[in-house]
Fold:
Amino acid sequence: MGVLGLGRMAWRNLWRQVRRTLITVLSVAFGVFLAVLMTGLQDRNWEDVINTAARLGGGHVTLEHPDFRDKPSLSRTVHAPPALLAELAQQEHVVRVVQRISGQVMLSTTADSFGAGFIAYDPAREDESTLSLLEAVKQGARFATSADGGMVLGERLARNLGAELGSKVVYTVTDERGEIVSGLARVSGIMRTGAPSVDLGMCLLPLDAVRRVLGYAPDESTQVAVFLDTQRRAEDVVQALAGLAGRDVAVRTWRETQPDLVSIIKVKRAGMLFFEFLILVLCAAGIFNTLFVSVMERLREFGILTAIGFGPVRLFGMVMLESLWVGLLGLVAALGITAWPYHYLATTGWDLSAVYGTQNADIAGVGMSMVMHVGIYPDHAAVIAVSAVVATLLAGLYPAWRAGRVEPVEAIKLV
Structure:
């Protein structure tokens, strides 16, 4: 009897105890269901957080001065002529390339003074897809041009400064030569993100206006932000851009520019992997119990099969094929019970704002929406599917070995 014959026999054996088989298959399906939803929540959640961090910071890939990370300063700049920006934008997976100036600033009004972080951007080149803070402008308007004299303040920062729309604000920074310089702007907009660190300590300024105050060249900035179609290609893009940028420019992925976020993701993913491993072990234990009981109930049958020439290897293979069928049926059942919940969570999402009492959370300084969606990476889905089948096969190893060790004379005596 060949493999196909053993496979047919194994299939028939499964349905001799329909209820037992269905319970086993459903246990596999439920384990896969939990693993897919939890992994999908993690994948989509962290993808969104990483993209938001990129839109808030320096993109998925950042070009900056080699020493900027260790000693952030407005004197550590990079030059990116239009020809270089155009060449960077043509690279595979690159969606957009923009220049920014970011650093620390002292803001002063007639009422008070506060320190804050700032991002200077070009409104002609950027929108909500590259700078997430623009979505949060709830009052007023954004800048009209890069040389505009406007300023956008975080809501709580504006309140602390006693500033309203149209109020004059003096911003003071240290230029490339270490001299203290100041600029004047009027509050053109107020943003509310829901993330305390942003609303309390962030403002937006026009790129060319800040360049003029700092004495920068027209192509000079503290960073060039590169945005990708997926953050998972960041390492590949870094290798491609390294030769274009030159030796005096550091090309870094978001993992290097957002180390706090990377640490949080690693801890959360490690916890999730442990939980998924625990689910896998519990499912495998249940499958093992079912298969072992099935084998022990059929010892007399195995003894008869052995007596008529059905060798130990074939018995072992038959039980292993039963395990394989259980795993494959479990995947099919998992597809059926996972499809609708996955579609709902992928499109509508799970709103946790009522639980946490806020529309946004703050993770490593990055605002995160409280509406959770799923979006599992294809390779992660493949790993879950393969792991479920492998766990089922491993659970069947001992029962299959026990079936192959049956002594015909002793087994036939069993009632």
About this structure: DSSP finds 14 helices and 16 strands in the chain. Residues 58-256 form one domain. The longest helix spans residues 18-56.
